[in-house]
């Protein structure tokens, strides 16, 4: 038995309160090395009296990666406190006792020592990681406002181009605005989405608005506050939540704070609002590039027009927290997506978490982090992150064809095991965005493949997001090309109908896909696999084929599918899938 593969950490993603009275416990062991695991648990104050250490509950092996197996169990405690340890049995019958103080032989003399056990001293509801209930059942739609729809040409920038007349650049404008979003709410409602994620809408000189000048004003080319209030109210009337995008890592160089520093140098009242090594702030421009070199102040990447804020400064904290609560209080927004979230200090995000949830307790806090994010997801900063690290494995199998099915599953599992289940249930799953090539372009125009990979993403834990235009077949390379004008004339109606059905499927089985267990069966050689999602009395089986045609036994009522032929069995063609309700 490989002791080095055994691991558990109390009060973490390995042991956490899932609900007020239910605790979920995980144990890691070496892959294919352990036959069974039992949990020994009880109230440590009744240890001697009840001798509960003489019984154990079997744990279930629920996740596997290329190196480890993971065992889970859900337990409660009548007195809201728990002591626990593990009985681990190898395939050769060897048993060990894994405790807070190490690994011992499995013998009653050891089991009866109460000081060895892991502890959850008390089920503290105030410390439990809570997420907004509505998020897990949300299907998001991301809008880049400048490119979605021009509803009011009177507020267009002077140099705005005719809609879709050219490919997007980092400088050009086409006139998309908030009136355009309002006018297309019926379209979005018909599509079935119930969450809008808007890229930044605050005053900014750029088309992307990630170089904010004034957080308290809507960019005049997008509209005004009255129009934004109308958008939120009309969205809410349709059951659609609204999430705004905030850039609290840096300001735009046109902001009055940075301009005051440029004018007054070290004497500026805002000199300590930024990270400046020496005065005056300076840099050397790189020809034909948005970036610079020889910067003597910190910025986003090497962009001299996005000076980084010093969020350790109490004045900066006060300024940003007032902004964050203002848009909740005055306009009833439902979420904040936080740009470049991993480059802002944890101390600030903890203050942010407390301030915005005091304003609206079910607000969704989403961080833009592209890598493993445990530090931000402990329950006192974000609810979730943009789950690129999770969906990268999906793209690597389906689209890039650089890994096997098993490697995809192991990669997805590895990411989910970093977090508590609450976070996995509200993680923001996406395959493309304003920062990446569009998924149809990655699929080289193959719409069958795109349908298969998006369907697979939609049935995972986490809340799925469509990037505007995906539903009608929009393409685009890396940004800025992925920020093309939305297609309104000559849409691919067949494709849009498919996505309406996919969104309806997600809603029909929302509890299964949001909370259900996962069971995999796969064949790396055939490039075929099935995933069973089960929750309470419901189960859904999804079978996918990325290899040659093969037959799938019917396992229930078919509810969704592509490239299949129905007879005694389902014949799945390449990029075919069938989803059945058991």
Features of this protein?
six-stranded antiparallel sheet; Oligo-1,6-glucosidase, domain 2; Immunoglobulin-like; eight-stranded parallel sheet; TIM Barrel; single chain; alpha+beta; 582 residues
* Count of individual domains: 4
What fraction of the residues are assigned to beta strands by DSSP?
Answer: 25-35%
How many individual helices?
15
Helix coverage percent = 10-25%
Fourth CATH level, the homologous superfamily of the largest domain? Glycosidases
Write the CATH fold name of the largest domain.
TIM Barrel
Low-pLDDT segments, ≥5 res: none
Keywords: Carbohydrate metabolism, Glycosidase, Hydrolase
Family: Belongs to the glycosyl hydrolase 13 family.
Catalytic activity: Endohydrolysis of (1->4)-alpha-D-glucosidic linkages in polysaccharides containing three or more (1->4)-alpha-linked D-glucose units
Pfam family, one: Alpha-amylase_N
Task: Summarize the structure in words.
It catalyses: Endohydrolysis of (1->4)-alpha-D-glucosidic linkages in polysaccharides containing three or more (1->4)-alpha-linked D-glucose units. Residues 142-506 form the Glycosyl hydrolase family 13 catalytic domain. It comes from Candidatus Enterococcus murrayae. Its EC number is 3.2.1.1. This is Alpha-amylase. This protein has 582 residues and is α+β, with helices and mostly antiparallel strands. The longest helix is centred in the middle third of the chain and has 18 residues, at 314-331. The strands form 6 sheets. Strands 20-19-18-15-12-11-22-21 form an 8-stranded parallel beta sheet. Strands 3, 4, 7, 8, 9 and 10 form a 6-stranded antiparallel beta sheet that branches. Strands 23, 24, 25, 26, 27 and 28 form a 6-stranded antiparallel beta sheet that branches. The mean pLDDT is 96. Helix 9 (388-398) packs antiparallel against helix 10 and helix 13 (447-458) packs parallel to helix 14 (493-508). Strand 1 (15-17) and strand 2 (22-30) form a beta hairpin. The protein has 4 domains: 3-127, Immunoglobulin-like, CATH 2.60.40; 135-246 and 303-512, Alpha-Beta Barrel (TIM Barrel), CATH 3.20.20; 250-302, Oligo-1,6-glucosidase, domain 2 (Alpha-Beta Complex), CATH 3.90.400; 513-581, Golgi alpha-mannosidase II (Immunoglobulin-like, Sandwich). The chain has 15 helices and 28 strands. Helix content is 24%, strand content 26%. The two termini are 38 Å apart.
């Amino acid at each position: 038995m490989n002791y080095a593969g055994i691991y558990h950490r109390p009060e973490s993603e390995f042991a956490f309160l899932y609900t007020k009275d239910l605790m979920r416990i995980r144990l890691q062991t070496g892959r294919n090395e352990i036959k069974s695991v039992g949990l020994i648990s009880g109230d440590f104050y009744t240890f001697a009296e009840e001798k509960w250490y003489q019984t154990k509950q079997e744990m279930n092996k629920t996740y596997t990666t290329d190196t480890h197996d993971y065992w889970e169990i859900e337990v409660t405690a009548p007195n809201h406190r728990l002591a626990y340890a593990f009985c681990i049995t190898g395939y050769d019958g060897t048993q060990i006792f894994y405790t807070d103080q190490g690994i011992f032989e499995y013998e009653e003399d050891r089991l009866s020592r109460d000081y060895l056990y892991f502890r959850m001293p008390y089920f503290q509801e105030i410390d439990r990681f809570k997420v907004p209930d509505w998020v897990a059942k949300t299907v998001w739609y991301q809008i880049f406002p400048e490119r979605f729809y021009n509803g009011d040409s009177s507020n267009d920038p002077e140099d705005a181009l005719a809609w879709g007349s050219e490919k997007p650049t980092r400088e050009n404008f086409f006139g998309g605005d908030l009136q355009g979003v309002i006018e297309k709410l019926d379209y979005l409602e018909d599509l079935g989405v119930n969450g809008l994620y808007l890229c930044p809408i605050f005053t900014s000189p750029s088309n992307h608005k990630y170089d904010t000048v004034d957080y308290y004003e809507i960019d005049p080319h997008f509209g005004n506050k009255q129009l934004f209030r109308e958008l939120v109210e009309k969205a809410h009337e349709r059951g659609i939540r609204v999430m705004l995008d905030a850039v609290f890592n840096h300001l735009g160089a046109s902001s009055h704070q940075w301009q005051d520093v440029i004018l007054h140098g070290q004497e500026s009242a805002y000199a300590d609002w930024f990270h400046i090594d020496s005065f005056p702030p300076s840099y050397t421009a790189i020809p034909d590039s948005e970036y610079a070199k020889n910067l003597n102040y910190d910025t986003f990447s090497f962009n001299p027009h996005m000076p980084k804020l010093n969020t350790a400064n109490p004045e900066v904290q006060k300024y940003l927290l007032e902004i964050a609560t203002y848009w909740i209080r005055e306009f009833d927004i439902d979420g904040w997506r936080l740009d470049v979230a991993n480059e802002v200090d944890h101390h600030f995000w903890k203050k942010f978490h407390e301030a915005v949830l005091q304003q609206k307790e079910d607000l969704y806090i989403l961080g833009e982090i592209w890598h493993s994010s445990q530090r931000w997801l402990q329950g006192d900063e974000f609810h979730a992150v943009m789950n690129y690290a999770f969906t990268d494995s999906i793209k690597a199998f389906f689209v890039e064809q650089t890994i096997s099915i098993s490697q995809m599953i192991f990669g997805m599992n590895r990411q989910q095991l970093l977090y508590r289940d609450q976070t996995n249930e509200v993680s923001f799953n996406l395959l493309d965005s304003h920062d990446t090539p569009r998924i149809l372009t990655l699929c080289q125009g193959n719409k069958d493949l795109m349908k298969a990979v998006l369907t697979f993403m939609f049935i995972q834990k986490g809340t799925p997001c469509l990037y505007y235009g995906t539903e009608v077949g929009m393409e685009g390379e890396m940004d800025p090309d992925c920020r093309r004008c939305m297609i309104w004339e000559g849409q691919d109606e067949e494709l849009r109908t498919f996505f309406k059905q996919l969104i309806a499927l997600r809603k029909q089985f929302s509890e299964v896909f949001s909370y259900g267990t996962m069971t995999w069966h796969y064949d790396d050689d055939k490039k075929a696999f099935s995933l069973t999602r089960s929750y309470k009395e419901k189960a859904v089986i999804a079978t996918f084929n990325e290899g040659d045609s093969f037959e799938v036994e019917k396992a229930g009522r078919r509810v969704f599918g592509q490239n299949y032929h129905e007879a005694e069995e389902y014949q799945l063609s390449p990029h075919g899938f069938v989803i059945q309700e058991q």
